[in-house]
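URGENT: need a sanity check before tomorrow's submission.

F., can you look over the AAA-ATPase-like domain-containing protein record below? I want to be sure the sequence and structure line up before it goes out.
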Amino acid sequence: MKNLPIGKSDFRQIRQAGDYYIDKSLLIEDIMKNSAQTYLFPRPRRFGKTLNMSMLKYFYDVQGAEENAKLFDGLAIQKSDAWQHQGKYPVIFLSFKELKCASMDIFIEKSLFYFSSYIERNFPYLEHMEGLVRSEKRLLLRLLDMEVNQTELEATLRLLCDLLKRYHGTAPVLLIDEYDAPIHASYSYGYFDEMIAFMRNFLSAGFKDNENLTKGAITGILRVAKENIFSGLNNIITYSILNANFSERFGLTQAEVDQLLDDADSAENRDAVAEWYNGYSFGGTTQIYNPWSILNYVAHPKDGLKPHWVNTSSNDLIKEILPKADKETQDVLFDLLKGKKVTTSIEEFTVFKDLYAGKNATVLGLLLFSGYLTAEVFDHFQSYKLRIPNKEIELMFRRMLEGYLGNGVTQAGDTDLMKALLEQRANTFADALAQYVKTSFSYFDIGKEGNSEKIYHAFMLGLLAHLDKDYHIRSNREVGYGRADIYFYPKDASNPKAWILEFKKKDKDDKGDLQSLAEDALKQIHERDYLDEIKAHGHTDFLCMGVAFEGKEVVCAF
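Structure tokens as predicted:
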């Protein structure tokens, strides 16, 4: 079998090396048949975005057209009417992947170097072309010398498109990969508004009412809110994982995986491979495999089926957002952990202030478009049926709390900790919980100033998730005169036991010690009549517990 191009994203490098290549060239036909001028393709990380953009570059590029044509030998696009466009256009291909910076000043500095180097390397002939007026040549030279100001830098795409059209007599193709990478960084480092203003002007210069443009394509993970960045760019049409069009062009289809497994003599594991790496539903119907995971499995079959994508994909944003999730989001995530399909609304546009506020629809949208959930079916009212796509992601969800709590949530049902809780041995449980938190939590994560009690709440939900088969587990439900943090009771109506837990996190402004804070939590259970609903189900033997946390310390009152 040919070598698998794991980690390679340059189309020419893969084809010239004779590596195994799964033909996605009909993406070109789809683009040429579609009436849109510019496309935005949001897809999860490592689903083939950069490789496809590289393929588009080598297909369209007028420079090296004859040599580039050989790269497509044997591919489906050669038999398409779209082949007539091969090697006919100048191409601008930019990647923002490495432009993630800690400040706006550093971003501008790196961008100046990047664009200057890119122009000098790819279009050295422009500064010598005939017909340049003095202002154009001066601006081009200042750009090459990295002396332009921010306003002039924002006009780079418009200038390049204009000059390339005049030089070649044909309007260029404009490709921008990972446009949202610097936007993520800007929000984390506190210069989001400045970045959005730059990106809005930069992209508008290249795509808005640009008569010197043949086709354009933009890729990223998220669809940043239109009012923030794509305002007025009516010629940009978005085809996300929720759209049927282009659904087979990113990721691997069942037929493609079947062929890959046959070629690798691994067909006997077909069903198990599907359980681990299949399950993404693009466009509501097309079943897609995670390409990074399946390629890594085929490359090392003796290592067995195990997580690949979740161990390499950048999930810093996920880990930062989940502790901020609101009550509604917590309930949905808990149901997903139990293997349920959840019908809910999502935001197709990512509004970062809503994301960091833990807004339900925005957080779920992030998880969906980042590849941690999939929309199995959906309607036209932004109501989607979400589920965990496969075993790889299910395992990640089981360890999700580990991502921001430390060493992880285990199969807790058989531990002394859970046994003590279920047997209502309160003192033993309190001691076991204190020891577990001390040895298992990462202080780096839970010791951060400003963390709320949600992070401990989520930890306890993770422990209880494995009881779902035999117990009704409720989180943040409205009962009595408030919302009880967690209560649960047996599905067996003959079992009189029930449990209710209320959490408090000690803040700087809280007076008293952890013990008094835990007693306050316990008092809240009774004062707000949280036991009413449990009593209504016929349960009479309660363990009521107030749990107070501070960093890696925990105290219980019961």
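My own read: The chain is about 45% helix and 15% strand. The radius of gyration is 27 Å. If you see anything odd, call me.
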